[in-house]
Amino acid sequence: MPEVTNLADKIEKQLPNELVGFLKQAGEVTAGRGEAVYLVGGVVRDLLLDKTNIDIDLAVEGDAIAFARELIRDRDGKITIHRQFNTAKIVWHEWSVDLATSRRESYSRPGVLPTVKPSSLDDDLFRRDFTINAMAIDLNPHSYGRLIDPYSGQKDIKQGLLRVLHEKSFIDDSTRIWRGLRYEQRLDFRLEADTLILLQRDISMLDSISGDRIRYELECILDEELPEKVLQRAGKLGALERLNPALEDDGWLADKYNNARQMSLPHKPPPDLYMALLAYNLTDKEREQFISYLRLPKPAARTLRDSGGIRAKLTELAAAAIKPSRIYHLLHGYSPQAITSNIIASDSPIACRNIKLYSDKLQHIKPLLNGNDLIKMGIPPGPRIKEILNKLLDARLDGEVKTRQDEEEMVGELSA
Ligand code: CTP
By CB atoms within 10 Å of each CB, which of 73, 184, 209, 334 scores lowest? Predict the structure, then answer.
């Protein structure tokens, strides 16, 4: 593949017309303002890789907020401004573009968010994670499409390499460790030899990052096509155990994630299902550590706890002669993803069959009679109604009553 120096044709071919028109207009507006604007970040990388990406990030050598305001003026859209970061997001129709004043970053200590100062595009590229993400495309009219590639990102793309820009990169921001593993597996790249050494050297720096930021990285991983590949690699390089010391990847997860994908077709598995499988073999105590370290939101935390709750009942669920009503009561009230995680992860085919029976059939069963019917039949309102309905439900689950008449006879016997 010959070296590319101008990407105007690629922009034209790979981006939707509306965005191409927008980028050209952005260049013209910025020239009129005496400023400069560049396409930066993942979209530049993906243009060179011929991959679709419409997440447009612009770096402005100038006032990004005023510029964004000017661009949204003749569009029917919305603008969101973050004055403290000098950034703006504009959204119109189905498009969304992030704009930021180009900046320099400095880290007061590892793991904290950086202090930022407006600066040149050069500094803006230097603050980035990997060479393949540290390129820009000039949008200014006289040099539209010119590739700016100070760290030979294009060469690394050709060789399939992930290379940091300087040796303190993972110390400054160790979320880059997880980002590196994610890109490596997604793009089928390799960490360049020195970068790999630095990553392993700095792996303990992951502990300097807040749980919220690590959770975000994990969510990004679980959104990948094959998250298990990233987690497996993280297991080998010692990053997985930083999420929880008890986590290890011995190939078990790959198999389960594959099943999760099959079961979720035609959709992607929900992230909480992947998360529950990741945490499946943790003890109650380890699971709680995992939940609080990552500050998992309530629904995800519930799925993980429920998944563990069901796992603790698997021996009983694996009994061949278990009654359907018992299965129902063992599983009733647990979140659907927790139930699915146990269908996928349980070693017992019988338990698995019983959980499926609950999920496909038993959970939807109800008695034909309701409270009003019982009152009409002469049962006085009160707790007895609930007791009888529960007995009717059990009898229906176990196939002891089939018709409305069966149920009425049962009520007659129970109230006699
Ligand atoms: N970036 C960085 N270090 C980080 C996060 C982001 O240097 N810890 C830079 C990279 O240049 C990256 C850009 O900010 O390309 C945008 O970040 P993000 O949207 O997270 O990444 P993308 O490259 O767009 O990756 P993806 O395709 O996964 O969205």
Answer: 73
| Cα 125 to ligand 1 centre (Å) | 11
Domain shared by 141 and 7, yes or no: yes
CA 155 to chain centre: 30
Closest ligand 1 atom, CA of 186? 28
Nearest CA to ligand 1 atom 18: 42
162 with 191: CB under 8 angstroms?
yes
Ligand 1 geometric centre to CA of 106 (Å) = 17
**Eight-state DSSP code of residue 77:** E
- 11 and 139 together in one domain: yes
One domain for residues 178 and 120: no
pTM, full prediction: 0.92
Q: Kindly report the protein residue whose alpha carbon is nearest to atom 24 of ligand 1.
A: 42
pLDDT tens digits for 359-385? 999 999 999 999 999 999 988 888 899
Written as six digits, the tokens of 74 are: 């003749």
Could you read off the pLDDT of 244-281 as tens digits, one per residue? 999 987 789 999 999 999 999 999 999 999 999 999 99
- For residue 1, the model assigns a pLDDT of 64
Residue minimizing CA distance to atom 4 of ligand 1: 129
- Locate the ligand 1 atom nearest the alpha carbon of residue 46 and give its number: 27
Q: Could you identify the atom of ligand 1 that is nearest to the CA of residue 41? A: 15
306-353 pLDDT tens trace: 999 999 999 999 998 999 999 999 999 999 999 999 999 999 999 999
Residue where a domain stops, chosen among 95, 123, 158 = 158
Q: Domain of residue 192: give its range.
A: 160-250
**Spatial CA neighbour of 134 closest among 94, 165, 101, 92:** 165
Cα 141 to Cα 73: distance, rounded to the nearest angstrom = 20
